[in-house]
Amino acid sequence: MIRWGIAMAVVAACVGYLVYSASGGSSEYYLTVSELRSHSPAAGDVRVAGVVQDDIQRSEGGLHLRFTEKDGTASMLVDYTGTVPDIFRPGITVVADGRLGADGVFHARAVLAKCPSRFSTTPYTQ
Amino acid sequence: MILAFLGSGALLAGLVLAAFSALLSFWAGSAQNGVMIQVGRRAFYATAVMILGASVLLESALLTHDFSLAYVVEHSDLSTPTALVAAAFYGGQEGSLLYWALILGILGSASLLASARIGLRLAAYAAGIMAVILTFFLVVLVLVASPFDVLQITPPDGLGLNPVLRDGGMLIHPPVVLAGFASFAIPFSFAAAALLAGRSDAAWIAHTRRFALVAWGLQSTGLVLGMWWAYHVLGWGGYWGWDPVENVAFMPWLATTAYLHSSQVQERRGRLRGWNFGLVILAFLLVVFGTFIVRSGIVPSVHTFAVSSIGPWFFGFLGVCLVFSVGLLVFRAGGLKSRGEPAPAVSREGAFALQNLLLIGVIAVVLWGTMLPLVSGMLGQPRVVGAAYYERAAGPLFVALLALMAAGPLVPWRHAGAPFWRSMLWPAGAFVLMLAVLLLAGVRSVPALLGIPLALAVACTVVYEYARAAGRWRLAGGGWSRAVAMVGKRRRRYGAYLAHLGLAVLVLGLAASHFWQQEKDVALQPGQQVSVAGYALTYAGLQNRELADHSELVASMTLGDQTLEPARATYAGLGGQSLTHVAISSSPIADVYIVLVGTSGDGSASFRIFVNPLVSWIWAGGVIIILGVLLGNAGERRIVVALAAAPVRSPVGAS
Q1: Chain B partners of A119 at a C-beta cutoff of 8 Å?
Q2: Are A23 and B389 in contact (CB under 8 A)?
Q3: How far apart are CA B53 and CA B49, in angstroms?
Q4: Considering its fold, how many domains does chain B have in total?
Q5: Level-2 CATH architecture, domain A28-113
Q6: What's the ipTM?
Q7: Which chain B residue lies closest to A120 (C-alpha atoms)?
Q8: Is there a contact between B266 and B205 (Cβ–Cβ < 8 Å)?
Q9: Most distant CA pair in chain B: distance in Å?
Q10: Residue B549 has pLDDT above 90, yes or no
Q11: Would residue B144 count as lying in a domain?
Q12: pTM of the entire structure?
């Protein structure tokens, strides 16, 4: 019983250390555009949720994108190179993962869309 | 109209029957009234029949396009292929809850029919608990999320299914995942019933283990199918993103994996009783918690879920289950003292105990990552963690688990002597050999240098065990009938080894594609060539194709003598939503995975091209695991009979 307790304590300590060291370096703030605007930009990457506006500019064969992400009144310009999810278009909510540059443009490493799941069709309204 | 009326009626009748079955089963169980126990059980079967009836009605409403039902309108339309219309049964919130109840009704009935040996009282309590769970689902289905709600005006056509879901994977992935989720309720009910009845003899272990293995097999299949679907449909080149939705499916699987191993310690050595109860209960609580997380949308996820009114119901249900389970464990655990004498640390018992602790550690890591947005959101600005967190925190635990998998099957029960250390030379040799090969090949990443050789060592251990069995077989005289008999006698063991082998193959696929994935973004003119990781691809040109419910812009790429056709489909019916069709050239060595990113008027196109090594090993490993589960589960009966015949070694002392 005592050995069982010791083994538990050792594993728990290891797991605690792993969780602590891993989440320290890689956790990111999850914000809306207006929250990003009202806080001073945090150091490191953040994830910012907002609605894609009607000004998507594509270049380099569609791989490079510039668009405005808006939330209520606050908006920001997002610069991104890479593939976007299929449902990416004006009006959908996306989460941009990256950081706000000194130029005031948000440089995204990844753009995630809220994926339409099988539970999310809009209710039928008459 | 009449259909909706009948369907609601069936659900209501099911609810009454389920509540009746629950009350009667508990009362008759505690009063030891055999006749009433039978009545309670029949009421459970009747509930299952009512749910089946409602399911048949919903399915026929979908197939006959009865657009008077809101559910049919919201999840299908006239242009959707018939198979996918049928799949809409479990494609929406209400239908998926009905499907869940259906699986619980069917598996619950099967578990009661097969419970002859575990004693009337225990079976009655189990029937009562399952009936309570069904009552909860039926209350939600009747009051909050009825699939039989009728629209005031019948529209001419439905809204249709989202294009992302218009895929063959939709036919198999969700039903298996949902069935896996539902099936964890069965071992939970029998575990809680055993605690209530105050007994946990060998027949109970075998029965619970059997249904835990069913749940584990379904969940394993669901997880692999989910990865397969994400890889083939979503077009981001990967298969696992540590999204909350994936995490909540993974955690009960981990808890049940732990139980399937530690229950052997109880079976063979009479130890870890309370712990085993805890694991079965934990698996179910994780399922309810996961369902709550997923359906209520309280955690940011790439999957959005309709913010629905069922969230609070599941929260309440989670609370009730938690209080009930913890109460049971606290008040009944007094009688769960281990009887067997403790074993030395280096023994099978020790290996299982350590494996269990590590698996609980992985659950803690995943749970923390999933809950972090909630916890940090309560304290201030929500924080989220990405894949890097899970890799860093869970990676070392996975490595330790692999090392245990390589050594564990060779460690004897009670005491490890010289033969064990000699047999360890095989996996150790495989490890060192692979490590040397990787080092010579210039690999310097520590996780890769540990994970891949360890996976090989796991496989080596399994092969060693099979070779030992083959040696015994040859010594006994060989022959096909003897081989079948020998495997048949120890199906469980050989099934488990097969599952280990499958996992080793799967881990090799995961590791190789994780560490050595190559990725390139290119824009090409027709006729231009590009080379990625030694694969030369030529872009031939674009063409447009009109199909029944959508049009496709198809790019042709040649790779050797193959033509690959990545495409973008546009669905006119759904506001012009477009969808990527990934083109994959799969071989045992690597997949060439092409996504068409964009096109321009002059015929040029841009692509994202991945070369993913050994991805097909993941699917192969998944198939081997399932075969192992099938082999292992088929062999339970003999053991149940043998164990039930033996004197009950140690009934739980409580009550």
Answers
A1: 92-93, 96, 295, 305-306, 308
A2: yes
A3: 6
A4: 2
A5: Beta Barrel (2.40)
A6: 0.77
A7: B306
A8: yes
A9: 82
A10: no
A11: yes
A12: 0.89
